[in-house]
Protein backbone atom coordinates (compact mmCIF):
# COMPACT_ATOMS: atom_id res chain seq x y z
CA UNK A 1 0.00 0.00 0.00
CA UNK A 2 2.83 2.41 0.87
CA UNK A 3 4.46 1.76 -2.51
CA UNK A 4 1.46 3.36 -4.20
CA UNK A 5 2.13 6.69 -2.49
CA UNK A 6 4.09 9.39 -4.35
CA UNK A 7 7.84 9.35 -3.70
CA UNK A 8 7.85 12.84 -2.19
CA UNK A 9 5.13 11.89 0.28
CA UNK A 10 7.24 8.93 1.41
CA UNK A 11 10.26 11.25 1.74
CA UNK A 12 8.20 13.62 3.89
CA UNK A 13 7.10 10.74 6.10
CA UNK A 14 10.69 9.50 6.48
CA UNK A 15 12.03 12.95 7.40
CA UNK A 16 9.10 13.52 9.77
CA UNK A 17 9.78 10.27 11.61
CA UNK A 18 13.51 10.97 11.81
CA UNK A 19 12.88 14.39 13.37
CA UNK A 20 10.36 12.97 15.84
CA UNK A 21 12.58 10.03 16.83
CA UNK A 22 15.57 12.34 17.24
CA UNK A 23 13.72 15.04 19.20
CA UNK A 24 11.21 13.12 21.31
CA UNK A 25 13.65 11.81 23.97
CA UNK A 26 14.93 15.35 24.55
CA UNK A 27 11.41 16.79 24.78
CA UNK A 28 10.52 14.09 27.30
CA UNK A 29 13.68 14.83 29.29
CA UNK A 30 12.90 18.55 29.22
CA UNK A 31 9.36 17.95 30.44
CA UNK A 32 10.62 15.71 33.26
CA UNK A 33 13.06 18.40 34.35
CA UNK A 34 10.25 20.97 34.11
CA UNK A 35 8.03 18.83 36.35
CA UNK A 36 10.69 18.49 39.03
CA UNK A 37 11.54 22.20 38.86
CA UNK A 38 7.85 22.99 39.33
CA UNK A 39 7.62 20.96 42.53
CA UNK A 40 11.08 21.21 44.10
CA UNK A 41 12.37 24.64 43.02
CA UNK A 42 10.93 27.57 44.95
CA UNK A 43 11.39 31.27 44.12
CA UNK A 44 13.38 31.61 47.34
CA UNK A 45 15.88 28.99 46.20
CA UNK A 46 16.19 30.69 42.83
CA UNK A 47 16.97 34.03 44.44
CA UNK A 48 19.80 32.41 46.39
CA UNK A 49 21.34 30.77 43.29
CA UNK A 50 21.15 33.45 40.59
CA UNK A 51 23.61 36.38 40.94
CA UNK A 52 21.97 39.74 41.67
CA UNK A 53 24.30 41.59 39.30
CA UNK A 54 22.76 41.65 35.80
CA UNK A 55 26.03 41.00 33.95
CA UNK A 56 26.91 38.09 36.22
CA UNK A 57 23.39 36.70 35.91
CA UNK A 58 23.79 36.65 32.12
CA UNK A 59 27.15 34.86 32.31
CA UNK A 60 25.61 32.44 34.81
CA UNK A 61 22.91 31.58 32.26
CA UNK A 62 25.39 31.32 29.39
CA UNK A 63 27.57 28.69 31.05
CA UNK A 64 24.85 26.78 32.89
CA UNK A 65 24.70 24.35 29.97
CA UNK A 66 28.16 23.05 30.83
CA UNK A 67 26.75 21.61 34.04
CA UNK A 68 23.16 21.16 32.92
CA UNK A 69 23.35 20.14 29.23
CA UNK A 70 20.13 20.32 27.26
CA UNK A 71 19.23 19.89 23.60
CA UNK A 72 17.12 22.65 22.04
CA UNK A 73 14.37 20.09 21.46
CA UNK A 74 13.59 19.89 25.17
CA UNK A 75 14.74 23.17 26.64
CA UNK A 76 11.59 25.28 26.06
CA UNK A 77 9.55 23.71 28.90
CA UNK A 78 12.55 24.12 31.23
CA UNK A 79 12.89 27.82 30.40
CA UNK A 80 9.16 28.34 30.90
CA UNK A 81 9.37 26.79 34.35
CA UNK A 82 12.46 28.81 35.32
CA UNK A 83 10.72 32.05 34.30
CA UNK A 84 7.63 31.09 36.28
CA UNK A 85 9.96 30.60 39.27
CA UNK A 86 11.10 34.24 38.84
CA UNK A 87 14.47 33.55 37.24
CA UNK A 88 15.40 36.86 35.52
CA UNK A 89 14.56 37.12 31.81
CA UNK A 90 18.20 37.63 30.86
CA UNK A 91 19.42 34.57 32.75
CA UNK A 92 16.75 32.20 31.43
CA UNK A 93 17.04 33.36 27.82
CA UNK A 94 20.86 33.29 27.91
CA UNK A 95 20.52 29.67 29.04
CA UNK A 96 17.95 28.99 26.29
CA UNK A 97 20.31 30.34 23.62
CA UNK A 98 23.58 28.77 24.77
CA UNK A 99 22.71 25.46 26.47
CA UNK A 100 22.13 23.62 23.14
CA UNK A 101 25.62 24.74 22.02
CA UNK A 102 27.79 25.24 25.09
CA UNK A 103 27.45 21.80 26.56
CA UNK A 104 29.94 18.89 26.59
CA UNK A 105 28.01 16.63 24.21
CA UNK A 106 27.59 19.22 21.45
CA UNK A 107 31.15 20.55 21.82
CA UNK A 108 32.51 17.01 21.45
CA UNK A 109 30.25 16.14 18.48
CA UNK A 110 31.31 19.35 16.70
CA UNK A 111 34.97 18.54 17.38
CA UNK A 112 34.55 15.05 15.86
CA UNK A 113 32.46 16.25 12.90
CA UNK A 114 35.16 18.67 11.76
CA UNK A 115 38.03 16.20 11.81
CA UNK A 116 39.13 16.46 15.44
CA UNK A 117 39.68 20.21 15.10
CA UNK A 118 38.97 22.76 17.83
CA UNK A 119 38.42 25.55 15.30
CA UNK A 120 34.71 25.06 14.73
CA UNK A 121 33.80 24.22 18.35
CA UNK A 122 35.49 27.48 19.39
CA UNK A 123 33.81 29.47 16.60
CA UNK A 124 30.48 27.95 17.60
CA UNK A 125 30.94 28.77 21.28
CA UNK A 126 32.11 32.30 20.42
CA UNK A 127 29.08 32.86 18.19
CA UNK A 128 26.66 31.57 20.81
CA UNK A 129 28.15 33.86 23.48
CA UNK A 130 28.17 36.86 21.13
CA UNK A 131 24.49 36.46 20.22
CA UNK A 132 23.28 35.45 23.69
CA UNK A 133 25.12 38.12 25.69
CA UNK A 134 24.02 41.00 23.45
CA UNK A 135 20.39 39.92 23.40
CA UNK A 136 20.40 39.15 27.13
CA UNK A 137 21.80 42.62 27.83
CA UNK A 138 18.86 44.06 25.90
CA UNK A 139 16.45 42.00 28.03
CA UNK A 140 18.21 43.00 31.25
CA UNK A 141 18.07 46.75 30.65
CA UNK A 142 15.18 47.32 28.24
CA UNK A 143 12.71 44.45 28.74
CA UNK A 144 11.77 44.33 32.43
CA UNK A 145 8.24 42.96 31.96
CA UNK A 146 7.38 39.28 31.73
CA UNK A 147 7.95 37.62 28.35
CA UNK A 148 5.62 34.71 29.16
CA UNK A 149 2.01 34.45 28.17
CA UNK A 150 -0.53 34.58 30.95
CA UNK A 151 -0.25 31.53 33.19
CA UNK A 152 -3.30 29.35 32.66
CA UNK A 153 -5.87 28.92 35.41
CA UNK A 154 -4.93 25.25 35.59
CA UNK A 155 -1.24 26.09 36.15
CA UNK A 156 -2.18 28.69 38.76
CA UNK A 157 -4.28 26.09 40.56
CA UNK A 158 -1.42 23.58 40.49
CA UNK A 159 0.97 26.19 41.87
CA UNK A 160 -1.57 27.15 44.56
CA UNK A 161 -2.07 23.49 45.52
CA UNK A 162 1.71 22.99 45.63
CA UNK A 163 2.13 25.86 48.09
CA UNK A 164 -0.42 24.20 50.37
CA UNK A 165 1.33 20.84 50.21
CA UNK A 166 4.80 21.79 51.39
CA UNK A 167 4.65 19.07 54.03
CA UNK A 168 4.14 16.36 51.41
CA UNK A 169 6.61 13.50 51.51
CA UNK A 170 9.39 13.17 48.96
CA UNK A 171 7.52 10.26 47.31
CA UNK A 172 4.38 12.39 46.97
CA UNK A 173 6.40 15.24 45.49
CA UNK A 174 8.02 12.90 42.97
CA UNK A 175 4.57 11.66 41.99
CA UNK A 176 3.35 15.25 41.53
CA UNK A 177 6.44 16.02 39.43
CA UNK A 178 5.79 13.07 37.13
CA UNK A 179 2.11 13.98 36.72
CA UNK A 180 3.08 17.52 35.79
CA UNK A 181 5.76 16.23 33.39
CA UNK A 182 3.20 14.06 31.56
CA UNK A 183 0.83 17.03 31.17
CA UNK A 184 3.71 19.21 29.94
CA UNK A 185 4.81 16.51 27.49
CA UNK A 186 1.41 16.28 25.80
CA UNK A 187 1.08 20.08 25.73
CA UNK A 188 4.52 20.58 24.17
CA UNK A 189 4.54 17.44 22.02
CA UNK A 190 1.77 18.63 19.73
CA UNK A 191 3.86 21.65 18.74
CA UNK A 192 6.81 19.36 18.03
CA UNK A 193 4.59 17.32 15.71
CA UNK A 194 3.36 20.42 13.87
CA UNK A 195 6.93 21.69 13.56
CA UNK A 196 8.29 18.35 12.33
CA UNK A 197 5.51 18.14 9.74
CA UNK A 198 6.25 21.62 8.42
CA UNK A 199 10.01 21.03 8.41
CA UNK A 200 9.67 17.75 6.48
CA UNK A 201 7.42 19.36 3.88
CA UNK A 202 9.83 22.26 3.36
CA UNK A 203 12.82 19.93 3.09
CA UNK A 204 11.16 17.91 0.33
CA UNK A 205 9.36 20.60 -1.64
CA UNK A 206 11.86 23.50 -1.42
CA UNK A 207 14.53 22.70 -4.07
CA UNK A 208 17.99 22.58 -2.50
CA UNK A 209 19.67 23.41 -5.81
CA UNK A 210 17.59 26.57 -6.13
CA UNK A 211 18.66 27.75 -2.68
CA UNK A 212 22.34 26.88 -3.17
CA UNK A 213 22.50 28.93 -6.39
CA UNK A 214 21.67 32.02 -4.31
CA UNK A 215 25.00 31.72 -2.47
CA UNK A 216 26.89 33.98 -4.87
CA UNK A 217 28.89 35.81 -2.17
CA UNK A 218 29.70 35.58 1.54
CA UNK A 219 26.64 37.51 2.70
CA UNK A 220 24.16 35.57 0.55
CA UNK A 221 25.85 32.28 1.51
CA UNK A 222 25.32 33.14 5.19
CA UNK A 223 21.64 33.84 4.52
CA UNK A 224 21.30 30.53 2.68
CA UNK A 225 22.88 28.57 5.54
CA UNK A 226 20.64 30.31 8.07
CA UNK A 227 17.66 29.31 5.94
CA UNK A 228 19.00 25.74 5.82
CA UNK A 229 19.32 25.67 9.60
CA UNK A 230 15.74 26.88 10.01
CA UNK A 231 14.26 24.46 7.48
CA UNK A 232 16.26 21.36 8.44
CA UNK A 233 15.43 21.78 12.17
CA UNK A 234 18.24 19.44 13.20
CA UNK A 235 19.18 18.52 16.75
CA UNK A 236 22.28 20.42 17.92
CA UNK A 237 23.97 17.13 18.73
CA UNK A 238 23.82 16.05 15.07
CA UNK A 239 23.86 19.25 12.99
CA UNK A 240 27.67 19.57 13.00
CA UNK A 241 27.94 16.51 10.74
CA UNK A 242 25.63 18.19 8.20
CA UNK A 243 27.55 21.45 8.55
CA UNK A 244 30.89 19.77 7.90
CA UNK A 245 29.54 18.20 4.71
CA UNK A 246 28.64 21.68 3.41
CA UNK A 247 31.97 23.31 4.30
CA UNK A 248 33.58 22.95 0.87
CA UNK A 249 30.49 24.35 -0.85
CA UNK A 250 29.78 27.37 1.38
CA UNK A 251 32.90 28.18 3.42
CA UNK A 252 33.74 28.84 7.08
CA UNK A 253 31.55 31.87 7.85
CA UNK A 254 28.27 30.48 6.42
CA UNK A 255 28.79 27.09 8.11
CA UNK A 256 29.47 28.85 11.42
CA UNK A 257 26.21 30.78 10.98
CA UNK A 258 24.47 27.44 10.39
CA UNK A 259 25.94 26.00 13.61
CA UNK A 260 25.03 29.05 15.72
CA UNK A 261 21.59 29.87 14.33
CA UNK A 262 20.07 26.37 14.12
CA UNK A 263 20.09 25.49 17.83
CA UNK A 264 18.49 28.86 18.68
CA UNK A 265 15.86 29.17 15.95
CA UNK A 266 14.18 26.47 13.90
CA UNK A 267 10.65 25.54 12.90
CA UNK A 268 9.83 23.18 15.76
CA UNK A 269 11.31 25.51 18.38
CA UNK A 270 9.31 28.50 17.18
CA UNK A 271 6.09 26.52 17.43
CA UNK A 272 7.00 25.26 20.91
CA UNK A 273 7.96 28.80 22.01
CA UNK A 274 4.56 29.99 20.82
CA UNK A 275 3.03 27.73 23.48
CA UNK A 276 4.65 29.76 26.28
CA UNK A 277 6.02 33.11 25.11
CA UNK A 278 4.37 36.33 24.00
CA UNK A 279 4.36 36.79 20.23
CA UNK A 280 6.10 40.16 20.51
CA UNK A 281 9.03 38.53 22.32
CA UNK A 282 9.27 35.69 19.77
CA UNK A 283 9.54 38.24 16.94
CA UNK A 284 12.24 40.15 18.87
CA UNK A 285 14.07 36.90 19.60
CA UNK A 286 14.08 35.63 16.01
CA UNK A 287 15.01 39.05 14.62
CA UNK A 288 17.87 39.55 17.08
CA UNK A 289 19.30 36.05 16.62
CA UNK A 290 19.18 36.44 12.83
CA UNK A 291 20.89 39.85 12.75
CA UNK A 292 23.50 39.01 15.39
CA UNK A 293 24.36 35.68 13.77
CA UNK A 294 24.89 37.42 10.43
CA UNK A 295 27.09 40.07 12.07
CA UNK A 296 29.22 37.46 13.84
CA UNK A 297 29.62 35.37 10.67
CA UNK A 298 30.65 38.45 8.67
CA UNK A 299 33.36 39.49 11.14
CA UNK A 300 35.06 36.11 11.65
Class inferred from helices and paired strands:
mainly alpha
Number of domains: 1
Give the integer mean of the pLDDT values.
Answer: 83
C-alpha-based Rg, rounded? 20 Å
Q: Classify the beta-strand content into a percent band.
A: under 5%
Provide structural commentary.
This protein is mainly alpha-helical. It has one domain. It is built from 16 helices and no strands. Helix 4 runs parallel beside helix 15, helix 5 runs antiparallel to helix 7 and helix 11 packs across helix 16. It starts with 6 loop residues before the first helix and ends with a helix. The mean pLDDT is 83.
Summarize the structure.
The chain has helices at 7-40, 43-49, 54-63, 72-84, 89-98, 104-113, 119-142, 153-163, 170-205, 208-212, 218-232, 239-245, 247-250, 252-261, 267-276, 279-299.
List the helices and strands and how they pair.
Elements: H1 7-40, H2 43-49, H3 54-63, H4 72-84, H5 89-98, H6 104-113, H7 119-142, H8 153-163, H9 170-205, H10 208-212, H11 218-232, H12 239-245, H13 247-250, H14 252-261, H15 267-276, H16 279-299
Helix pairs in contact: 1-4, 1-9, 3-5, 3-7, 4-5, 4-15, 5-7, 6-7, 6-12, 7-14, 7-16, 9-15, 11-14, 11-16, 12-14, 14-16
List keywords for this structure.
single chain; 300 residues; 16 helices
Amino acid sequence: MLNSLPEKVLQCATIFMSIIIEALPFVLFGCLVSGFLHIFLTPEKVNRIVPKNKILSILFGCFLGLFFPSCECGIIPIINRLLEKKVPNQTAIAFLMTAPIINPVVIFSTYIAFGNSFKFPLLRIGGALFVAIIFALYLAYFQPESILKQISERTQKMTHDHHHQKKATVIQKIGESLIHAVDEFFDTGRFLIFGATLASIMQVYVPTKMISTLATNKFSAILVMIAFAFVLSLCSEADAFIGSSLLSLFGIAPVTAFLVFGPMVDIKNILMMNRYFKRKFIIQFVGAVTVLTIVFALII
